[in-house]
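Hi there, hope your week has been kind to you so far. For a while now I've been wondering how a particular protein folds. I'm sending you its amino acid sequence along with the backbone structure tokens. Could you read through the record and tell me how the tokens relate to the sequence? Take your time with it, there's no hurry, and the full record follows here.
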Amino acid sequence: MTNIVNTIIEGVDSLIKQPAGCGEQTMVRLAPTVYAMTYLKQTQQQTAYIETKGSQWIRDGVNREVSQFKQADGSYAAWRDRTPSTWLTAFVAKVFCQASKVVNDAVDQEKDVKLTIDWLNNHAEADGSFVDNMPVINREMIGQINERDPSLTAFVLITLQECGNSNAGVNATVNRAIKCLEDLSEDMLKKNPYLLAISTYALAMSYSNRSITFFKFLHDIKKTDREGTFWGNPGDKPANAHSVETTAYALLAMLKFGDIKTSSSIVSWLTSQRGGTGSFRTTQDTVVGLQALSQYSIVTYSPDVNLKVFFFADGTMFSSVRVTKENAILLKNISRLPVETKDNKLTVKVQGTGSAVMSIDLRYNRPATAEESCPFKITDIDVQEVEDLPIDTNLAKERNCDVCGHCAGVYDYDDYDSDNFRDRPEIEPKINSNFGRKKRNTDIRISATAQKKCIRFSVSSMNDKTYGMSIVKFGLETGVEVIKSDIEKLVKENNTNIAHYEMPSDGKGFIVFYLHEISSKKRRKFIFSGVRGHF
């Protein structure tokens, strides 16, 4: 039993993660850390361990994002050679502005924020709206935002207001964006609860008079169930990402209007939808949900918590806990609840002052399905030794040979002695090239005398789903060094799907491929070679 946000965090470590990956993935890890640390700092509940680890990872995340993915004009993309994304740039600015309030030395306001805000300001449309001509690769990141409808405008407006880097140009852009949202029709808003929720919060932050009307629209279309108040379709539990993110923005809006009664009912619903690890379904609904719940906890937080909680079953008390200021941050577990009592009812009585949240987790075990264990199919990894000879590129192109010397329709013989040519089709004379030699077809293994290894495998999904940005990490045999030119050729030939690759500078240990997507309709094939070094 804990206060609100710790029920969601369920041990701060579950959301505080070390940043890694591309520009999008770095932010996926950085954002929850920033919002978790925001709550703990503002309610003075940071432990020394969490403060040290969380603060360092925020610094690391900001530094990684800026040093590796920031473009010269202040914009951001998954990779520096990719066209910048308006949404990702706004998200980076939003998180950086919040991070600067948590860790004083994490963000350089002039270099890391102002330049990015200026980029956003310069990329507003004439009517004040924003569009994204280069959507992010990881679609899960953006949640329900549509890069071509007003929800992106609302998101950028929230960023500009939260950062507060005002000047004449930014103020003019903010005013146009406000007007753009104020002009949205009641019919459009009520048919799109997400657009209504995020726009209401954006206008409330901007002190727009029209926000009061939007606030009333939110109340008009709210839904209730036994868990509390929500917006959208509940779907299966945990709630679908659309409902969670929409409801989280509605909570932020309610808090702006001081509607604590409705906010409490929303919090009850949100906390009932979390997964077993304390998060929701996707990155964005978890981030927005955490921000909203953190804000609610900050608004309702009382340092004078002093609660006695008693648990009864069949009229008999079987457990009790005490919640005070000193232990409020700690999760209190009561194991082995008597769930098989006569009437199967649990009675909870509370005395004292303050607020806390109790949640009951009912879990059962079953074997994981194949898709749950791993939704991808990986073929057997074919590793063959081939002769490490110079490549005749002209011959390779003519015979459609790959980087490992496998050529279409080329016969193979055990060696090139004259006896082997009796009664055989005429073939090309011996060439000092790895291509066109010793290959009967691509399915035959050869025995080679050199230390060059050819590696082949392919990846696809196990169902009809298409997965967005995915990572394939291939561990190399000890001492084998990848031939970089092979990787560059592979990336060039698959530039529509392989977004980027990473490997140690010496080419040993592993190689990581970043893919735009993995689907069941088309296998993603990988072929490259490596040379065994001396060690």
Summary: Residues 306-353 form one domain. The chain is about 40% helix and 15% strand. The chain has three domains: 4-300, 306-353, 371-532.
